[in-house]
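I had to read the description of the data format several times before I understood it. For illustration, here is how one protein appears when written out as sequence plus structure tokens:
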Amino acid sequence: MGFSLWTLLEASLLCLNAICILNEERVLAKYGWSTVNREFEDMPTTKTQILSLMKSIRTVVKYPLIIFNLLIILVKSLTG
């Protein structure tokens, strides 16, 4: 099995799914990566930029990701 555009598409789908289902209160708060009860600082650090990127991805990609997952499942079930 080689590296192709299809495997890159599946890998990006899995990464987006992981970001979208990651619970901020349960998982990220244990490691100090939660934005709950904390304002973003004036000077953006790498940590705050990653957190804002994750929050933006969750906001923008939530509903298109459902459709994208259904399409991938359909293609996988038809092609094997």
